[in-house]
């Protein structure tokens, strides 16, 4: 079994997702970003998007193992809209961004762990 405090080189070769969302491993539960925001928003009206790292298990925030950054973007033009950098020990892997959309899109949340690479989740947003 893999130790959680060792880097996993294969995870740095791609953007990572849980292999089975209904049966996630502890590694997947600790790293998968959750997107919290309305399903439907008004065009060009700012709204909050919160990204939490981890599903039922908190990710460590230690010097040896921490989340380096969290970002939110959209699929059109592969555009990253916001990114926040995190410091180990003094911050925890959660960020709220205020964004506005001009048309329906798919939001893309990403986080980067210093030992386990980049993890991604997506959420469709309808703009009315
Ligand atoms: Fe990690």
UniProtKB/TrEMBL annotation:
The encoding gene: sor
Family note: Belongs to the desulfoferrodoxin family.
Keyword set, alphabetical order: Electron transport, Iron, Metal-binding, Oxidoreductase, Transport
Keyword DNA-binding: no
EC id: 1.15.1.2
GO molecular function, one term: superoxide reductase activity
Domain Desulfoferrodoxin ferrous iron-binding, residue spans: 24-121
Gene3D superfamilies assigned to the protein according to its UniProt record, in alphabetical order: SOR catalytic domain
Signal peptide (from-to): none
Pfam family, one: Desulfoferrodox
Recorded superkingdom: Archaea
Protein name per UniProt: Rubredoxin superoxide reductase (1-Fe-SOR)
